[in-house]
Design a protein that fits this description.
The protein is of the alpha+beta class and 213 residues long. The chain has one domain: Roll (Pnp Oxidase, Chain A). Strands 1, 2, 3, 4, 5, 6, 7, 8 and 9 form a nine-stranded antiparallel beta sheet that branches. Helix 4 packs across helix 5. It is globular, with a radius of gyration of 20 Å.
């Protein structure tokens, strides 16, 4: 077994105190997201999405956050994908933003709801044409024999849609994760990290707790 126990570093970019916290967690999330973007992180919107299959086996994958507001966190995907099938059976999920270089994490738990066709179409029309075509090409999570299968299908669909707009595939959609808890983690010296958990009480109010690191 490869021993990795000697890999460690101190977290010393600053702490997080109760007085720093707004009453609404989305205000702090927006501030941290802007700081992640300003820091030049390569994928500040990348988040891990966790789902569970019918046997209780957890799965995780990285997707990109496309919108967020007080109503939740939005991402788009193929509705035939493994994660979509899981969410159809169990809508509970969690998200994780791992902003390592800022010594921060944000962990969210909640439930997923499908977006309306209008919401999906509005976003789909903003995508580059090649990305729109790619949505038609991949039967996400299914097995394929070789990359050339994807490339051939992409060329075929590119020819098909070369002279017009690319229509929205009926199997392509999105989800809004309606948060029930949002945890903010800030690294601290000597492993004395700062963790604050927002628990949703009702439509407007959140309870805030400090957690041990």
């Amino acid at each position: 077994m490869r021993d990795l126990s000697d890999i460690r570093r101190e977290y010393c970019q600053g702490g997080l105190r109760r007085d720093d916290l707004p009453e609404q967690p989305m205000a702090l999330f927006e501030r941290w997201m802007e700081q992640a973007k300003d820091a030049g992180l390569s994928d500040p919107t990348a988040m891990s999405v966790a789902t569970v299959d019918h046997s209780g086996q957890p799965f995780q994958r990285i997707v990109l956050l496309k919108r967020f507001d007080d109503n939740g966190f939005v991402f788009f995907t193929n509705l035939g994908s493994r994660k979509a099938k899981h969410l159809a059976e169990n809508s509970k999920t969690s998200l994780l933003f791992p902003w390592h270089s800022l010594e921060r994490q944000v962990h969210i738990t909640g439930e997923a709801e499908k977006l309306s066709t209008t919401e999906v179409l509005k976003y789909f029309m903003t995508r580059p044409k090649e990305s729109q075509i790619a949505a038609w090409v991949s039967k996400q999570s299914s097995r394929i024999t070789a990359r050339s299968v994807l490339e051939g299908k992409f060329f075929e669909m590119k020819q098909k849609f070369s002279k017009g707009e690319v229509p929205l595939p009926e199997f392509w959609g999105g989800y809004r994760i309606k948060a029930e808890t949002i945890e903010f983690w800030q690294g601290g010296e000597h492993r004395l990290h700062d963790r604050f958990l927002y628990n949703k009480q009702d439509q407007q109010d959140w309870d805030i707790e400090r957690l041990a690191p």
